[in-house]
TrEMBL record:
Belongs to the eukaryotic mitochondrial porin family. GO terms for cellular component: mitochondrial outer membrane; pore complex. InterPro entries: Porin_dom_sf, Porin_Euk, Porin_Euk/Tom40. Its main location: mitochondrion. The keyword Mitochondrion applies. The keyword Transmembrane applies. It is found in: Mitochondrion outer membrane. PANTHER family: GH26960P-RELATED, VOLTAGE-DEPENDENT ANION-SELECTIVE CHANNEL. The lineage of its organism: Eukaryota, Metazoa, Ecdysozoa, Arthropoda, Hexapoda. It comes from Papilio machaon. This is Voltage-dependent anion-selective channel. GO terms for molecular function: porin activity; voltage-gated monoatomic anion channel activity. Pfam families: Porin_3 (PF01459).
Length: 342
């Protein structure tokens, strides 16, 4: 939970309470917010943990990166579903601060089993993070990241992959920068034959968002991607529209109806085609540890999910995909996922 301290005279209506000074007089009004920026009831004793984050009047959140535009609506349609797979994820952390993540996924249809293992270690004094990854396709990957040291808000990542069986090697240099007004990120493919340069930027003004994403292939000497997006976002509402390469159109709407209900609407269509994809989805929180998920699109494909925190650090997800147009023909999918973390 984060807290916002607002001096008397600048307080806003809503949840909150005043702090009590040592002499018994009222001090500042404390407005408590959760991780999503939504106002919630403050602790009754008025004390705030020293580990909590603070935001002050006039401080604004940075705009999302281009790839994260429409993320709130996308999460309604993607989180809580694992169709056609059995999945197990495990996260742990050693006493020395090294984070380990491993996962295994079994595809019911193909029978293929995919596994991955990664470790991450942060050197906070230097803003460095080292990540090592391996998967069952026998691909090794290394990421080195430095953040907020070259410049405030700037993150630079050098990525490399190596496949011992084929000798294939790849490299990427990624940068990202964000402040209260703009979020910019670049992706440079380190291919000596001719790198591919990907650049994206998002501008924010009073909740309105405008973004552009372009990709240039230096080997072919032409632009391979020209995308634009426009939207509006608040703590409980998000509108997103996009045009990809002038022919693929999309849009989404997210609305937090209440503390327990999140809803999303998504649309996709292509110029020159009559095929339009339209879907609605919702998440309903039964309590602090359980939630129901449901979605359906105009092709009568229905997704259902149930997520339950069995105990701290242990989460079970059950999901099912139903083809409403061919209900009796079968082909429906179910999925089970376990997530374990400290």
């Amino acid at each position: 939970m984060t807290s916002q301290w607002v001096p008397i005279g600048l307080e806003q209506p809503g949840m909150g309470h005043y702090s009590m000074l040592a002499d018994g007089t009222l001090g500042e009004k404390i407005i408590c917010k959760n991780e999503y920026g939504e106002r919630v009831d403050c602790p009754t004793n008025g004390n705030v943990s020293e580990n909590e984050d603070f935001s002050f009047p006039g401080e604004e959140m940075a705009p999302p990166y281009y790839a994260d535009l429409g993320k709130k609506a996308n999460d309604v349609f993607s989180k809580g579903y694992h169709f056609g797979v059995f999945k197990l994820d495990l996260k742990t952390k050693s006493e020395s601060g090294v984070e380990f993540s491993s996962g295994i996924t079994s595809n019911q249809e193909s029978g293929k089993v995919f596994g991955s293992l990664s470790s991450k270690y942060a050197v906070k004094d230097y803003g460095l993070t080292f990540t090592e990854k391996w998967n069952t396709d026998n691909t090794l990957a290394t990421d080195i990241t430095i953040q907020d040291k070259i410049a405030a808000g700037l993150k630079v990542t050098l990525e490399g992959t190596f496949a011992p069986q084929t000798g294939s090697k790849t490299g990427k240099l990624k940068t990202s920068f964000a402040n209260e007004t703009v979020a910019v990120n670049t992706n440079l493919d380190l291919d000596m034959a001719g790198p591919i340069v990907d650049v994206a930027a998002v501008l924010k003004y009073q909740g309105w968002l405008a973004g552009a994403n372009t990709q240039f292939d230096t080997q072919k000497g032409k632009f391979s991607k020209n995308n634009f997006a426009f939207g509006y976002q608040t703590n409980d509402f998000a509108l997103h529209t996009n045009v990809d390469n002038g022919k693929n159109f999309g849009g989404s709407i997210y609305q937090k109806v209440s503390d327990k209900i999140d809803c999303g609407v998504s649309m996709r269509w292509t110029a020159g085609s009559a095929d339009t994809l339209f879907g609605v989805g919702a998440k309903f929180a039964l309590d602090a540890d359980a939630s129901l998920h449901a979605k359906v699109n105009n092709k009568s494909l229905i997704g259902l999910g149930y997520q339950q925190k069995l105990r701290p650090g242990v989460t079970l997800t059950l999901s099912a995909a139903i083809d409403g147009q061919n209900f009796n023909a079968g082909g429906h999918k179910v999925g089970v996922a376990f997530e374990l973390e400290p």
